[in-house]
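Below is a filled-in request sheet from our internal design queue. Each sheet records the structural input a requester submitted and the sequence that came back. We keep these sheets so that new team members can see what a complete request looks like end to end.

REQUESTER: design group, bay 2
PRIORITY: normal
MODE: inverse folding
CHAIN LENGTH: 504
BACKBONE (tokenized):
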């Protein structure tokens, strides 16, 4: 009797150490104080036209003041929605580049760099209400710069999009979409993509100095000389911090709690590829009731069989057709569940529309389509369940939404938003866990990415059971943002970093 017990213990230990190797988190490391620097040349500051900006400085005035104070000549370009058409935007940029007058001085010539404050336009785009105006214009900006063969670096500025530590809150998760667009641009357009800086709410003199110091070293390619090639930065009162993805083993640490699948578990995307595996796993964890949601509902292939299978495991499962991007439809579903005494205690948001496009190739409609289920679905769940008593609010994201991936433009931006939303919920005192998956077992990823291509990239397929063991641990620890990915870095980084040696 001892031997089987020992074998099971050994297997569990082995599984735990395997999954431990798959865990990654984001940290921020302070950079040494940057030297005072003077900017030279003309900088084009790009903003979005329109009302609805919140917070001081979101018009970019403080940035313009800072750039000028440190020697830059500044031209401002305000984009309206006609600029969603990359050709219109390209010609708007060409006009701005060719203008001779800068700051009242005759100044023909080239542009030293582009500074985009588009992220601040968080309001919905009129033409594509699924997208924030700034996100959409940001995509068009990268496209237009690529189309016009831009050489000068593009720097994207956000505010409240990242948390560099416990007391630093994500206040504007929507702006993290811009960071996601930037990660893709870094891989697909290394020639002109400079990097991103998350600014404090207001840019004081010290902050302005630091921003100037970052941009002063900007050449073409990754980051700037002054920051040692760092291209993902946060500017805080303490100084300048650079983003890092680090291993995050749980080791022998005791979990913070024991999550239980009490009451009802709501799984969006429940009839997709991963959803049924999650549902079976929930049943194995002892879930009483699972509500699986997708647009097709019971019409999704295998839905009826899955319900029967779960019933055989002692779990009452229902499959409901609901488009979670439709706030009213989702509210009606949640009201019905509450009326039945089944309001969810755990939410797992795995709904997604997954299409892979490069930034240059994507059209705005496709970009919006991919963002919609992830972003609007998460936002609707967040808002409608704001007062609910939840044990877990798990968002299914991807490593693409933690450190980027070429050819995944909208997917990266949507997943980056999920991480930021999780951090923002934490800042509001609510539970949230954004799990950034690597790729699940071969048969589960079928159809989208060729297995050989995945292996060559250095991502290893993860066994579903082990992946879910990793998720369980993240839920027991009530983690906020965690990647669970089997990465062979010796193969992954040379491919990932080949176009641009970005520090990860
Ligand atoms: N598979 C992987 O290896 C992998 C790796 C990394 C991350 N992930 C993440 O894990 C999640 C699940 O991935 P998957 O591979 O299972 O994707 P999938 O097979 O494409 O399934 C997505 C599911 O979402 C549903 N859905 C889409 N739009 C919806 C909407 N508006 N309202 C309600 N349901 C909607 C789909 O059903 P209908 O079409 O019927 O609505 C489907 O059930 C995604 O967030 C993905 O990014 C997966």
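RETURNED SEQUENCE:
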């Amino acid at each position: 009797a001892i031997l089987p017990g020992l074998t099971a213990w050994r297997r569990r230990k082995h599984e735990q150490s395997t999954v431990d190797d798959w865990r990654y988190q984001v940290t921020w490391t302070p950079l040494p104080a940057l030297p005072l620097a003077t900017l030279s040349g003309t900088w084009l500051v790009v903003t979005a036209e329109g009302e609805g900006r919140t917070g001081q400085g979101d018009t970019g005035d403080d940035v313009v003041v800072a750039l000028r104070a440190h020697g830059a000549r500044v031209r401002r370009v305000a984009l309206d929605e006609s600029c969603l058409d990359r050709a219109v935007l390209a010609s708007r940029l060409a006009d701005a580049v060719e203008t001779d007058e800068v700051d009242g001085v005759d100044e023909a010539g080239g542009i030293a760099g582009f500074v985009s404050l588009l992220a601040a336009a968080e309001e919905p785009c009129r033409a594509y209400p699924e997208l924030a105006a700034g996100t959409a214009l940001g995509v068009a900006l990268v496209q237009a710069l690529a189309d016009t063969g831009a050489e000068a670096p593009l720097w994207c500025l956000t505010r409240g999009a990242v948390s560099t530590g416990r007391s630093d809150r994500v206040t504007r998760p929507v702006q993290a979409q811009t960071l996601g667009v930037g990660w893709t641009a870094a891989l697909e357009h290394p020639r002109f993509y400079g990097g991103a800086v998350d600014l404090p709410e207001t840019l004081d003199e010290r902050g302005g100095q630091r921003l100037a110091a970052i941009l002063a070293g900007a050449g073409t390619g990754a980051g700037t000389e002054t920051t040692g090639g760092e291209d993902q930065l946060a500017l805080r009162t303490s100084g300048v911090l650079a983003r890092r993805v680090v291993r995050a083993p749980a080791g022998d640490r005791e979990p913070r709690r024991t999550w239980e699948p009490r009451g009802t578990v709501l799984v969006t995307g429940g009839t997709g590829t991963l959803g049924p595996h999650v549902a079976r796993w929930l049943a194995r964890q002892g879930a009483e009731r699972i509500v699986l949601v997708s647009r097709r509902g019971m019409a999704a292939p295998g839905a009826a069989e899955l319900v029967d299978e779960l019933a055989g495991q002692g779990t009452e499962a229902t499959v409901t057709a609901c488009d979670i991007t439709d706030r009213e439809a989702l509210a009606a579903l949640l009201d019905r569940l509450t009326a039945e005494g089944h309001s969810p205690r755990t939410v797992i948001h795995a709904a997604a529309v997954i299409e892979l496009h490069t930034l240059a190739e994507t059209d705005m409609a496709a970009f919006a389509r991919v963002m919609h289920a992830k972003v609007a679905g998460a936002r609707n769940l967040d808002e409608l369940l704001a007062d609910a008593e939840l044990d877990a609010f798990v968002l299914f994201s991807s490593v693409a939404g933690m450190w980027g991936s070429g050819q995944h433009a909208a997917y990266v931006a949507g997943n980056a938003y999920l991480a930021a939303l999780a951090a923002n919920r934490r800042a509001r005192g609510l539970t949230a866990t954004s799990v950034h998956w690597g790729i699940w077992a071969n048969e589960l990823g079928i159809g989208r990415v060729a297995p050989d291509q995945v292996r060559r990239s250095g991502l290893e397929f993860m066994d579903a059971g082990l992946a879910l063991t990793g998720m369980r641990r993240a839920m027991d620890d009530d983690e906020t943002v965690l990647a669970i990915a089997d990465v062979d870095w010796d193969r992954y980084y040379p491919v990932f970093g080949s176009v641009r040696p970005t520090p990860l």
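SHEET NOTES:
- The chain has 15 helices and 17 strands.
- The CA atoms of residues 340 and 432 lie 25 Å apart.
FILED BY: M.R.
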